[in-house]
Amino acid sequence: ECQTAINMAPQNAKAHNTLAGIHIAMREYDKAEAEFKKAIEVDPEFTPARLHLGNYYASKKEFGKAQEQYKAILAVDPKHIDAHWRLAQIHGIQGDAVAVEVEYKAILEIDPDHAQAHLALGGLYVRQEKLNEAIAEFVAALEKAPNFLPVYVSLGELYNKVEEYDKALAICNELKRFSPPEEEMVDATKQAKEAAKFVRQLRYTTSGIAYFGKGLYMEAIRELKQAIQLMPNSAITRYRLGLAYAGNKDYDRAVVEYEKA
User: Fold this and answer.
1) Gap between the Cα atoms of 46 and 130, Å rounded
2) Which residues of 237-254 are buried (b: 16+ CB within 10 A; e: fewer)?
3) Residues in the chain with pLDDT values less than 70
4) Structure pTM?
5) Residue 241: partners with Cβ closer than 8 Å, 6 or more residues away
């Protein structure tokens, strides 16, 4: 049908773009590239073809060509979130943190409720050791998407790093929603069970670190022992448990955990 439409109206950019998608699905990538280019030749402002062509180039690691397409989109539509997002990803691969930040902030200016952009910007700040800025972005992400698990994963660890231990414990309490007890997951899929197990590991580890930071060593020992039951080969968790035993002046058990670490 697409080819018929093109034969009847060769200046139909949408038909060229659709036919390119079919070629992609059939793994006829050279033909797809040619059709995307024809769509753009027919209508240089037809952004779907430019986006698909840019994505195709990015998949081939031809980042310069991909950037040309995304920037051409933004010249037509400066509020095109996908183009900003794709540029941010390429800048990240190229190690240009400044450009990455510019693109994420551009997305948030267009859509302040874009939780994924808040999360991504927070992750950038973590890598730059801008921990308070990262926390602000993660908190903003949760305000927009209260069930966004990746934010909780990052935020609990960050609160411990900046010694906001009560806030870290509050995050652990929220994580209970994502990790029901095993007896409640008898009929769950294997993937769901593994995901809940990961969250429980994270929750026990994060709370253990927080209790240790507050000087509550017995509580820290309790939580870290729970974490070790789920991941007995975790050397760092055993080391932390050793520290908690030492803090509680139980030096013999501390030595045992150090030796296992």
Assistant:
1) 39
2) bbbbbbbbbbbbebeeeb
3) 1-11
4) 0.83
5) 208, 221, 224, 225, 228, 257
